[in-house]
Amino acid sequence: RNPEEIRGGGLLKYCNLLVRDYKPARPDKIKHLERYMCSRFFIDFGDINQQRAKLESYLANHFMGEEQNKYEYLLVLHRVVDESTVCLMGHERRQSLA
Fold it and tell me: Which of 29, 48, 62, 77 has the most crowded CB, counting CB atoms within 10 A?
């Protein structure tokens, strides 16, 4: 499915796949898709409290007892959001990445 068809754009799942050594079939197109995923996530979860709740829920459901993978996941998510988010103003980006 396309990122715009998935609530949250598939950003959290995509970062989970990266942590688990997923390699994109089309590396030349992935940066474009990352921008879509980030935009969709911040459109669907526009409030910092919604973002936090969604992330905490995702971590609890997908990384129970996997502290090292959870840490790696957060690093990957931070990198993807930092490099690919184009829809946030500077202060919103800093707030989301904090």
Answer: 77
Q: Which residues contact 97 (CB under 8 A, 6 or more apart)?
A: 78, 81, 82
Asked if 81 contacts 91 with a C-beta cutoff of 8 angstroms, the reply is no
Which pair of tokens denotes residue 46? 């526009």
Q: What are the structural domain ranges in the chain?
A: 1-95
pTM of the predicted protein model:
0.82
Question: What are the tokens at 45?
Answer: 């979860």
The one-letter code for the residue type at 21 is D
φ/ψ of residue 81, rounded to 5: -65, -45
Q: How confident is the model at residue 96 (pLDDT cuts 50, 70, 90)?
A: low
* Residue that has been written with the tokens 């935009």 in this structure: 39
Instruction: State residue 4's pLDDT score.
Output: 65
CA distance 47 to 2: 23
Q: Distance (Å, rounded) from C-alpha 89 to C-alpha 48?
A: 13
